[in-house]
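--- STAGE predict ---
source: upstream dedup step, 1 unique chain passed
mode: sequence only
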Amino acid sequence: FMQEDRCELSPEMHPVAHHHNANISTSNNSQQQQQQQPDFTTPRAYQLELLNYAKRENTIISAPTNSGKTLVAVLLVQHLMKQKIEEHPQKDTKAAANIKVIFVVPKRPIGQQQADAISKFNDLLQMDTNLGVEVLMGKASQKRWEDSLNKQQIFVSTPQAVLNRLQQELLSIDRVDLIIFDECHHAQKGSPMRQIMTDFYWPSKMQGKNVPRILGLSASPVAKNSLGETIMHILRLGNDLDSSIKTIVSPQNITELEAIVASPSPETIIVPLDEESQRLHDNLLKVRQQLRDRVQYYSNQCMNDMRRTIAHHMQMTHHFMVTNENRSCFTALCEIAQYLDACSYVEQEVVRIYDQHCLSIGTINDSKQRASTVSEKWKKLTEILHKRSGTAIVFVKTKIECDELGVHLENAGLKVKTLTADHNSTAQQDVLDQFKKKQFRILVATSVAEEGLDIVQCSLVVRMSEPASALNIIQSRGRARHSDATFIYMATTDLQLSNIDRTQRQERLMLQAISLLAEIESTSGCDDPYLRTEHRESMDLKHCFKAIFDMASESDRGDLPIQGHHNNVQALLMTTVKKLLKKNPTIDIHGVFAGFTVRIVLPCDPEFVFEGSKNARSKNEAQFNTTLELCKKLHSKDLIVLPKKHISKKVHSIIPSSKKANRTCVSGQVSAREALTEENAPSLLNTFCQTQSVAEPKIDYTKNDKGHFKCTLRFENEGLEAVGEASKKKDARKKAAHMFLKKMLQIQDFSVSVKSV
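--- STAGE serialize ---
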């Protein structure tokens, strides 16, 4: 139906007009459009599918940017008006259709756009009763609110303005028939959008009073790193808004949507740093690591003031790295010099750390003479923009970078304007109007232009820094509305590439989670996974975890982000279960004839029980094997939640700390390896068995005529054994373990594994 989600009704999207020859002159094109006017009064099939969901219950519509969600909202208003007229046939049509709708928009500039869009739909749909629309922001007087409530049907406002009126008792929730939350993913903890629901909607509902219908609109409801977390946050959003999240599921409608809405595949361009910038980047990495070590030290010493101070300086180091990559090496060096010069006496420790890594004031001034004043990214961007025709939007991270990049592109001979949060709503609209009229070709903007603002079709969107989450991807990609549009990431480091991959995966998980929840609602016994009988302060997956596990498709996720060390596997399971189910699992170990077996019960309803597939000789081995097996199952379903401190792909240090550890300096770096001794042999042997998932050797003790203990360690499957003798059991085992490891080092199958331990 629409080329754009807000208010642009482009005839190019009509099936007939879509095939117009691009080479036909403007006058001929306008004549053809007059001869064949598109039928805007007929919504598309996918919009009707979404409308049917919204008619039945409170709904959050998840559909791509530019798919026409605003039209669905207007059609729902029309449906509720007709319903109200049918319920009160004795009243005249005008009185019966006196519906009250609050259209909540996240930002002030979006308010007038939505009001204009509703007015256009009002004319095009030829409704029996016109919809009166009023934009009421925070500065609107109480008299204006009262007059509008008496005369109009739809009020467009920001969440804070609506919340203020409700808190001042100048607006009552039971007077409203429908609340539409645009970009409803902002309804997070502490937000005005969520407070409207928790402080006014839910208390009224629990008291049995009249409450408005709810409609949420979003292209990106949530972005998390695992399927379990994604589903949990979607349920949290659904419960807060008392709504079920719906998307387009009909294959025919999905095909229609894909043909209409431009969704260019992202293209990644890697721009390496120049030599001087790379040197600065490497030095800043070393500084940041040393500052991180100091933060940990002060945290252990409970010196919180110093910890916070050093943590702030560590964040500044990251800022300098971003400046070096995105603006220029010269700019980064200037900022570091000013920063070091301003450090107080207390912060001289930080200055010394910078000095250690060739970042003293003197070396910085020397480096400035060789440093580039324009980053490689900016040079590459300028080259791309000169080659490409058509309008383009360039997204940057900070306002300073936005202004500086705008000046750089202007000096390169390009017509550019900038858009940041410093522009008020009027100034923002002026810039966008000029962009629509093609008075300039390139718009450089911060995240203020990512979401909601009505921006004309553009053929190129470039992100100069990696996105923070999938929300940034979806929103910024939505600005690429031309059918042949290109969406480009510009990356400098491998870390940025991995962040881009992570955010793309978050988007896939979001779509998978919404689809899975729809399947659970329709086919499983859990008909209301959102638990909407009451508002919940905290959400978990206890009531639907079994259904999620059974219905989620297995994906080839590769290996767990951890290797076989027992403590790591245990921590991974505990983190996942605690996060998703809010309680720890129950682990039962049972002795059987052939050894031990483990049964893990997850705290959900219905009960989720997992039993290990094989027995083990020891309790530790049985628990490790079963925990690892369950973690692999959860990982294959994308349900594993990594701890905040990411578990390394390598095993955590498993060599016991010892003052006797031998330290050798290799190429200027200190490496540590503990020599194999009788004292540490039992510990190292145990670690070897756990990390290599090998059954522990069988241990037999006997006593000889002298009263000494004889300890025999035996790998029955390998036919390998070792014997140790001593006056004490403990010493006999140490000698046996020492001899055992020495023998293993002589066997090719084991030597590499033992040496790594």
